[in-house]
Amino acid sequence: MKNFTFKELSLFVVLLLTFSVSIYAQEIGVLGNGNSISDNDVTPAVADFTDFQTNLTRTFSIDNIQSSGNTTLTISSITLSNTTDFTISSPLADNTITKNQTPEPFTITFNDPGTGLTYTSLVTIANDGNNEIDGNNAWVYTISATSYIPVPEIDITGAGISIVDGDITPSLTDDTDFGNVELGFTSVETYTITNSGTAVLNIGVITFTGTNAGDYAVTSPPAATVAAGGGSTTFDVTFTPIALGNRVATINIANDDADETVYNYDLIGNGVPPSPEMNITGNAITIADGDTTPTITDDTVFGSTGPGTPVSHTFTIQNTGTATLNVGTITWSGANPGDFTVSTAPATTVPISGSTTFIVDFDPTANGTRSAIISIANDDLDENPYNFTIQGTGVVPLTEGPGGVTSDLALWLKGT
Fold it and tell me: Which of 67, 71, 185, 363 is the most buried (most CB within 10 A)?
């Protein structure tokens, strides 16, 4: 058997100790999004959070992944090569990590300069682990992040409904259809500009193009700038038709939204002739055209009377339209038309915002409820004729007693 020298035995002990330490020493593991990040990794990836994309913060964690033994992993420091664009915003709470301990997190923040460029940094984790590739007690990997350029984002609504940029289908629901407007009159619609982007929205000139651009005008302009993050401003468009029929135009709103630099949509309105609008009141209360329910409040109920003692009620014709109202013949129909007459006729024309009156007499020819329908011819487009029902109660005195008594009737009544 060979005898070993002291030098050989010493070397053997050193080798044995070194081997033991390598088996039972702590080992570092670095995780991002639950995925392992290799030592000396130079290819940032979304999956392990080393590629921030446009996110401002990412959290990583350090684990003690030794397979044998139970020694503690100590982290000396975590440093960044680019401390201008990246910051360790949340350092390790515990720099000693035991086997099977929950991985210890730390957070890196990207200080976005708003340039649109991509920035990188090395992350160096100094530690006493035993598994680094180059044995330098430092776990190193590369991170990257893309700067986000703040931009505005324009949207326009009418009646609370979004109007798509380039819309060519005007609608009453979003106020891009102004409906019928009489010549010489106007209609105003209000629109809202909203900025849902991350930068201030600048509003430029608003113009109108298209077949009837001259019929439209901005009568209350929007603010020149709209704050980011939901700021808004409103503007009014006035439609003044200068001819009959559909009048179309396109509104164009200049702005600095990169993909909607001229926000435009179509408008339509219908020019119609000025027209009268008839309304009738009794006792200062409107009597609807076609009303079939006489009431005391609007004077369509005349009360009780007898023949030769007529009851008179006055009614007023109003013109609330935009053209002169022409009043024609007044006729009667219904159950008892002969019990009612027009004793004072209205004027044949009623100016805009003007009025005229007429008087109806009720002179019953029989007892009981007496009714009739009065019809007033006119040139209101949708109320010709204007008609309503009136009624009264006839109280006719007794002229013949029982048995055919006709003379000295008062004396006979007194005697009986």
Answer: 363
